[in-house]
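Private note to self, pasted from the team thread so I don't lose it. Backbone tokens:
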């Protein structure tokens, strides 16, 4: 072998050897790196959500399902929320107790269903002649409502959130025309919350029933009338099959906030990022549901009137005036019941006064102007 060939071969061998050593060292470094920084395994957790709504019921039941799915998706499966509709794990109106005592982790419902626990819960769904949906959001998020809600619910081991809204509700379905307040006397009417207290003051018998029990109760004559939500949900329940008189406006629920309550011990056990996910998921559903009801109610009302012969009636100003007076009496009585309810009512009433001033100047005057007779479409 020539000398220069030998040297070239030697150089190549050295280069290859060095490369092999480098690769080997690199491999060792990677092994050490793997040992030094093991992959972080996310701890997955399943949460049980119970609801007061029938399975897959439009708007309410589907809204609860969306909220559960939002939390699951936003956490990338770190939190999996399993939904149980009314009666699947616990009866509808026992959802609050199930979360309070830890049988379930979360509920989706309406706070006025819990007025038997404390009258102040009514204010976080809706009260007669109270706040509209937008005004409720403003009070809860910017008027001190959430802090009061937290204080109230914490006494029952619950952390609450707004998680949906149905907007202004209809006055209800009646088996006869209502031409005066006298026509309400003696009627058995399904109406929960403080609206029911107002009806009792006017001589009616107000009854609280979960959604799934309303139609059979109307059909059997156990009740003479009912309010539920609005055209979209009322059409789905088929109330038009039993009664044809459909009244508006609804005095009792001008902006019904739905809620998601989390067991307080479960809430405290969540990481800050998981808490943020729950908070933002419920807020997203709160907005989405309100938009959905606004989109569906108009079309559903048209179906009720044109396809099912429903007779739309408006409560007279005289009736609404008397209902308003009775509502004021009920609100003052409730506020005087205990210190906590009085504190919530003061905050609510003070905010209502300010909200009415702005709403009259802005939205009400706009609606009146929009209704003038000019060509647009």
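Design output:
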């Amino acid at each position: 072998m020539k000398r220069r060939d030998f040297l070239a071969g030697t150089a190549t061998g050295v280069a290859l050897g060095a490369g092999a050593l480098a690769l080997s060292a690199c491999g060792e470094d990677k092994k050490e790196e793997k040992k030094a920084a093991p992959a972080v395994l996310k701890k997955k957790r399943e949460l049980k959500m119970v609801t007061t709504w029938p399975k897959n019921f439009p708007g309410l039941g589907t809204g609860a399902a969306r909220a559960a799915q939002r939390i699951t998706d936003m956490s990338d499966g770190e939190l999996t929320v399993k939904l149980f509709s009314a009666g699947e794990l616990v009866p509808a109106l026992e959802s609050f107790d199930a979360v309070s005592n830890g049988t379930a982790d979360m509920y989706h419902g309406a706070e006025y269903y819990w007025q038997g626990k404390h009258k102040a819960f009514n204010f976080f769904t809706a009260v007669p002649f109270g706040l509209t949906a937008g005004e409720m959001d403003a009070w809860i998020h910017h008027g001190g409502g959430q802090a009061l809600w937290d204080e109230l619910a914490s006494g029952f081991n619950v952390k609450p959130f707004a998680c949906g809204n149905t907007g202004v509700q209809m006055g209800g379905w009646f088996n006869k025309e209502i031409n005066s307040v006298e026509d309400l006397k003696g009627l058995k009417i399904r109406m929960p919350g403080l609206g029911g207290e107002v009806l009792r003051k006017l001589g009616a018998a107000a009854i609280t029933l979960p959604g799934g029990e309303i139609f059979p109760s109307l059909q059997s004559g156990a009740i003479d009338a009912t309010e539920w939500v609005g055209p979209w949900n009322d059409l789905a329940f088929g109330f038009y099959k039993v009664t044809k008189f459909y009244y508006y406006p609804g005095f009792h629920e001008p902006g019904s906030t739905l809620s998601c309550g989390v067991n307080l011990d479960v809430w405290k056990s969540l990481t800050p990022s998981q808490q943020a996910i729950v908070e933002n998921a419920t807020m997203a559903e709160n907005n989405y549901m309100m938009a959905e009801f606004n989109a569906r109610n108009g079309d559903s009302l048209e179906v009720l009137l044109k396809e099912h012969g429903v007779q739309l009636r408006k409560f007279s100003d005289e009736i609404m005036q008397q209902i308003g007076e009775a509502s004021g009496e009920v609100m003052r009585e409730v506020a005087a019941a205990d210190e906590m309810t009085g504190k919530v009512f003061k905050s609510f009433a003070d905010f209502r006064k300010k909200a009415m001033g702005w709403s009259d100047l802005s939205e009400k005057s706009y609606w009146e102007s929009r209704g003038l007779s000019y060509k647009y479409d």
